[in-house]
Amino acid sequence: MKKLLVLFLALILALCSLSALAESVDPATIDDTITSDDGTYAVAFVTDVGQLKDKSFNEGTWNGAKLYAAANGLTYKYYQPANGDQATDDDRYDAMKAAADAGAQVIVAAGFMQGTALAKAAAEYPDVKFVFIDGWAFDDLKNVVGIAFKEEQCGYFAGYAVVADGYESLGFSGGGGGTNPACMRYGYGFIQGANDAAAALGKNVDMKFTWAYGASFAPSAELQTLISGWYETGTEVVFSAGGSIFSSITAAASANDGAVIGVDVDQSYESDTVITSALKGITEGTQWAVAKVFDGSWDEIGGTAVSLGVNDDAVGLPEDTWQMEAFTVEDYLALKEKVASGEIVVDDQAAENDPNQKGPWSNITVDYVE
């Protein structure tokens, strides 16, 4: 317990300092591809499904890896598993093996689907360190750290905020097909926040909720058509919680004068339809873990798993860029303090697929769209 307390205190300090670094350096100004004189790369990143430049989970994680490497004069490279959205465990393992064989001292792997391949690669390359984002620890693998986030908390803030700001007809479109734990926590937190805000205001709201067309995290005409239909029939704002599906949802919003909630990183810079984003510190958390490999302190975290939330300043909403008026920054900070203190506890045990399995809800009607 003492070790965990020290670890969390150290993490809070590290996230604060790394956040300052991230604000001072624009990752877009740092090359994604570099040439190594000897063909080896010290820092490697293996992408999740979707594109590297997804303006969300992959890109945020990659930014953390390359920010640290570039700032410290280290070589770095990203690897995308073969077969794209249809990548198998073997494809992911092959990408990790290629990184390890190319001299990687640390491999950052993004997404829960990396688990089987990562366990195999970490066992075969015990001298390589593995940072498993949205992942967990493995028995007897001291060269792995799992870093997860309390997405239910920032999902809660987003749901509460938009209802408190006056929105009454909401939507949620998630990635991973209803089996991705992080996306499920986002969605379930979103419902809880919206329900609590509606109860506080003495009103009832509605929400359309779906995993349709988001399983591969890829944009699609089918998803854009679905979400356009939502906006056309009264939905005012949609939470896009699935990486690259963001482009389909913002396209639908733009065509119908609708609003969007971004995910993972502040996506307001990508579309003027975004009124706020549910943030988690993937860039900062990745930098912090990679630094442990090179500063000699890996033993503090190797073989462990951490779950970061509001008390670690690792989840929240972007205070500088949101487009809300009735719900103020002061309102948000007061709500955030209630979650941090435990006065409000956000349930993280989402029902698989249909969230009505966790109902009934007091002030929100959830229409599960298959």
Shape label? globular
* CATH architect. name of the largest domain: 3-Layer(aba) Sandwich
- Neighbour order of strands in the largest sheet: 12-10-9-8-6-7-13
Q: Total domains, how many? A: 2
Helix and strand content put the structural class at alpha/beta
Distance between the termini: 43 Å
Q: How many strands in all?
A: 13
What's the tally of helices? 10
H/E topology pattern: HEHEHEHEEHEHEHEHEEHEEHE
Strand content: 15-25%
Rg, alpha carbons? 20 Å
Taking pLDDT < 50 over at least 5 consecutive residues as the criterion, the unreliable ranges are 1-6, 17-23
For the residues shown, what is the average pLDDT? 92
Into which percent range does the helicity of residues fall? 25-40%
Output the CATH topology of the largest domain. Answer: Rossmann fold
CATH superfamily of the largest domain: Response regulator
Biggest sheet descriptor: 7 strands, mixed
How would you describe the overall organization of this protein?
The chain is α/β, with parallel strands linked by helices. The protein folds into two domains: 181 residues, Response regulator (Rossmann fold, 3-Layer(aba) Sandwich), CATH 3.40.50; 185 residues, Response regulator (Rossmann fold). The chain has ten helices and 13 strands. β8, α8 and β9 form a beta-alpha-beta unit. The longest helix is centred in the first third of the chain and has 23 residues.
